[in-house]
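cron nightly-structures :: item 1 of 1
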Amino acid sequence: MQDVMSSCRLIGVGVGPGDPELVTVKGVNALRAADVVVVPVMDTGERGRAEATVLHYVPEEKVVRVVFALNERTDRARREAAWDAAGERVAELLRGHSTVAFATIGDPNVYSTFTYLAQTIGESLPGTVVETVPGITAMQDLAARSGAVLTEGTEPLTLVPVTAGATVLKEALSGPGTVVAYKFGRQAREVAEALRETGRIEDAVWGSALGLAEESIQSAAGLGDAPLPYLSTLIAPARRDGGRGGKL
């Protein structure tokens, strides 16, 4: 058996928001070079975006599906038990392989499952080398597909997960710069209200399933009470009244 303490590597690979063409060359190389590629799945068992993307580049027999409590936010005990079980499964893979890649949608350092996995592995297998390969984020993809400019000149950019509550989003919208909201689908009505109250709804755009057959990109002005896909992304561009280069 290999010396785990000195030789194994865990690599978090960002595979983008869903469009397989948006995986970087470095990401593809990392997936192909790894001994196994772990993809997170929910306990319902359906194929997630990370797995679907990975299968464009590596054979199915190289992919290991590991169950994570990806959407569990209320039952802490259940979530912790799921994390422990997932961490032990990945640790088992690391004991038998020199390089294990973990594919995560978006970027592994932006609201990613990989962050918690790396912490768990660091505790259970100290000495494991942990690396990340950056990935294209949903906000970048939505900006490209919708024509929304994320930042100009000295404008700040604020990224808010709406799972933290619509109040946090409203506070961000009340400030300067562009605001991006992640995972807002289940709180679409509250998000629309926050946009209207802060006068930011007219220029805002939202999108879901970017790069996939069911892609939807629409103006936020049309948001209603109906819930949207969980992984919906919103961009509310900064107010720009100074003309070209007005904020340099």
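cron nightly-structures :: done
The CA atoms of residues 72 and 227 lie 18 Å apart.
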